[in-house]
Fold this protein.
Amino acid sequence: MAEEKKDAEFVHKMRHSCAHVMAQAVTELFPGTKLGIGPAIENGFYYDFDTEHHFVPEDLPKIEERMRQIIKARQPFVCAEHSKKEALEKFGAAGEKYKVELINELQDGTISFYSNGAFTDLCKGPHVGDTGHIKNFKLTHVAGAYWRGDERNPMLQRIYGIAFQTREELDAHVKQMEEAAKRDHRRLGAELKLFSITDDCGPGLVLWHPRGGRIRKILEDWIRNENIKRGYEMVYSPHIARLHLWQTSGHASFYRENMYSTMDVDGQEYQIKPMNCPFHILMYKSELRSYRHLPLRLAELGTVYRYERSGVLHGLMRVRGFTQDDAHIFCTPDQIAAEVEACFDFSMHVMKTFGFKSKVTLSLWDESKPENYTGDAKDWKMAQEVLEGVLKKRGVEYECFKGEAAFYGPKIDIKVIDAINRPWQLTTIQFDFNLPQKFDLEYVADSGRKRPYMVHRALLGSIERFFGILVEHYAGWFPLWLAPVQAKILTLTSNEVPFANKLAEDMKKAGLRVEVDDRPEKIGLKIRETHMEKVPYMLMIGPKEAEAGNVTLRVRSGKNIPGLTPGDVISTMCKEAAEYSLENLYS
RNA sequence: GCCGAGGUAGCUCAAUGGCAGAGCAACGGUUUUGUAAACCGUAGGUUGUGGGUUCAACUCCCAUCCUCGGCUCCA
C-alpha cells in the first residue's frame, strides 16, 4: 500500500515535470511564448501558452522531439528560493505577465523556483530528480483555455499530454482511448441507427429513429411505472405558456439567457418552456390543498427547450430540446426528510438497474453571501441538514461544494461518467425556496394556512443524456429487456422460411422483439451483419433444425447452443427480459 | 459564446489551381448457401451554403452554417 502511494506520488511529480519540459521545449521552439500554468492532471499534464503562433497538430511531434532531447540530457531540477521582489523583477523583465499576476497574489516571503537547464519556472514543486526520469509521454491535443478559467480573460492555447511510468501503461492508455472512441454514443447512434441530429433540423435537436425510439419507449414505460409504484401521479403540461407565467416564476429574468424568444399568439406573448415547474405549481394551486393531501408528487416526462451556447452542444449529452423525467413534490415540513430519502433511494435504484457507477455531490450555499440566495438562513440550514442527513444515513461517499447551490436552494447531484471519463449529471434533487413563495403556495394545516416545502427532482436527468450514457455504458450491446431487436432468426435456405416465420410469430405473441433474415444469402454474411447490429441472440435454422423442429442459438461470444426447442427459447428469453437482467441467461 | 481543427457519394476516405475517384452500403442480375464479407453489373456529386479572385476553383480569399477537441456554462 505504501509502495502504491509512493508510486502515485512519483507519477504525479513526473507528470508535472513533464509539463515543465514541454514548456521549456515550446519556449525554445517558439521564442516569445508567455507561460500560463502547467499542472499534472489525471493520466498526464497540460501547459497553457500565450503566443502569436497558432499551434497545429503537426507541431506536436516537433515539440516532442525537443522534449526527448531535454530528457536525454538528464538536466537536474534545481529548487531556488527568492523574495517576492526578486521574483517580480525576474519574471517582469522576461515579460511573463501571467506569472507576474500569480506572484502578486502570493503572500510575502520566499517564493520557490524550479530550474532545469536554461529553463526556470515559478513552481512550488516537487519534481523528479532530473529530466531523465521522464520516460513515456505523448502530446495528445491542442485546445483553447481562458486564463484562470474566466471567460472575461484572454484565451490561451493549451497543449495536453499523457505520461506514464512504463511504456506498457502508455500504450494501454492509448489503446483504451481508441476503444472508448468506438463506443462513443454519437458513432454508435449512427451505426445502430438509433438517432440522428442533422443540420437541416437544427443543432441540438434530436431525431429518434425507430431503433432508438423502441429503447426510449421501454425506458419511458419503465420509469413511469417506477414513479407510479412510489406514489407519483403522472401529469402532462403544454409546451408553451403565456410569458406572464414565466414572469411570475422569475424564469423570465433569472433564466433569460437560456430561453428562446417569445412568440405572438393573438397579441399575447407566449414562451416555449425551458422548465416544467410552473405547470406543476399551477396544478397544485388549482384547488385548496390540505395537509391531509400531502405529500403531492407530480411527475412528468416533460420536454423542455433551452438555448445552449453553440460550443457546448455534444451529441445527446447536451442538447437544446430534451425530455426530463421531472417531478415536483409538495409536502409539509415533517414529511420532507422522508421524501428526500425516497428520491435518493429511487435514484440509487435507477443506477443499480442499469449497472451505473455514480458519484454523489452535495451543493451548498455560501453563507457569507446571503444576498445571492432566496430564502433565509434558517431554511437553508434545515434543507442542507436534510440533504446531508440522507447521504449520511445511506452511508454513501459524497463531496460537498460550497457556493454551488442554486440561488433557490441546495441540491444533491448524481453524476455518471461516459466512455472517455467525462462526468455528466443525471440525477438532481433540489430544494426550492423560491417558487412556493413566488406563487404564494399554501396548504391548510390544523393551525391555519402554511407554505409547503417543494422538492424538484429528475432522476434520469434527461432521457437524451441518459440514453447517451446508456449507449456508451453497454457499448451498444443493450441487455435483453432494452435491445431494440432481441433476436434475429437466420435461415439457411428458402426451405426453412415457413418454420422461421412460424417461430417469429410465436415469439412476437410472447412479446419478444424478433426479426427474420430470410434473404438468399450465405449464413456467414447474415451472422456478420446481425452481430454488427448488436442483436443479442441469433436463432439459426437450417435443414437439420427444420427436420428436428428445433433451433441452434448463437450467442454474442460466437458460441452455439444446438437443439433448443422453440418453447425453451421463448420462455428463457421472456424470463430474462422481464427481470431487467443485465446478464444473459444464454451465454 | 471563445480558441483551434475540419466539412468531397448514405458511410470511411482519395484528388496541393487543369477531366471529381476508390472501398463498403444501395439498386439489378446470377448464386439455395452450415457459423464474421459469394460473383457480375448499374446508378449515385451544384465538393456544407453564399459571394469573390482566375482562362480555369474541391483546391486561393471573404462571409456564413454545421461538426470535432477544449475552455466557460449546465440535465
Remarks:
- Residues 187-237+276-474 of chain A form a domain with the BirA Bifunctional Protein; domain 2 fold (CATH 3.30.930.10).
- Chain A has three domains: 2-168, 187-237+276-474, 487-578.
